[in-house]
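OP here, attaching both records as promised.
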Amino acid sequence: MIFIKRAVMLCASIAIAAFADTHSGHAAPAAAQEAQTEIDRLAQAIKLNPKDAAAYSARANLYRAQGAYEKAIADYDHAIKLSPKDAKIYGARGVAHAQWGDYEAAIADFGESIRLDPKQTSAYNNRGFAYAYAGEYEKAIADFGASINLDPNDGGAYNNRGNAYKDLGDLKKAEADARKACELGVCNLARAMGLNQNAHSHHH
């Protein structure tokens, strides 16, 4: 049970990091009002130009931030029809599927995102979370490893892989990844595992 809660939180935080242009739906009422105004503006833009994939995608990002996953996915579907080679839209729809709890659909979308743009770490990380959440830890470890190969200085990817090793019961590898992650400034797992001697090093 603990892993499930952590995976959801991490998946959401990774999603926000990966798609930094999205708005947070858990902000003050003023921000919620601002998001609604932007949704209305995008609805007008779509009415004027129904072939505007970027407008559908932007509105989907706002819906997703509000937790309106069904609406978000419908808008991402439109955006993908209009722009079928855009890896970012598949990645964003994958996050919506994952946050909605449909890990199979999320894994498929992240896979397509990776196929279209094999150099992006966010899709590997997000698919890794979806696999971990579905209990497929070996596949999760492989995806976090692929992300590390693309960006060896990403402490988050080491932290994520360490969590997957831990949940698989391989504490030796989990500890090694936790220490490496902490060296790179991400000490969540190191602290959780009680590896405090490194927890104060390399703050960015």
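Record two, same layout:
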Amino acid sequence: MTRPTILLSLLSILTFSFILSAQQKETTSVDKQGVYSFIMKTIDGKDKPLTEYKGKVLLIVNVASFCGYTPQYKDLEEVYQRYKDKGLVILGFPANNFGQQEPGTDEEIKTFCDTKYNVTFDLFSKISVKGNDQHPLYRYITKDSPFPGEVKWNFQKYLVDKNGNIVAMYPSKVKPTDKEVIEKIESLVKDPS
């Protein structure tokens, strides 16, 4: 081998090692912090680190304005109003992944939620919850959480304890007001940890 070939080979190995090391650090960081590892854009376009929710119980939901499950906005708001003073926060993530049922801009989505359902829980900028453009938060939820698997449809729900651990997943057909969801929320908001 010539000297330039050897140098090029060494440079390639070092570059690959650096990239692999960076990926491992990122994975380790996400594993330790869970959902708190992410900074999301609010529906108003502001950065919001999910670390701001430490110590709260979270219900993470992918939402859409033109879906058969859209009336669950009312149920989500009802649950939020009932438990917000006990430490529950609902995080709504508009997504257009299923049947193009969330085609609007963030401003249009916010207006719809405000006027049709009087939503006061936290809404975030539209993201993708599956596919090649899947947001890293949902990549973590669907691949590295205790509830792996693709998001099946709009209004799939993930319940997160006060320590940032995903502790339950509810499919779209399960309403936020259903007994199994309410009982789990009540046990989590009472938990002192």
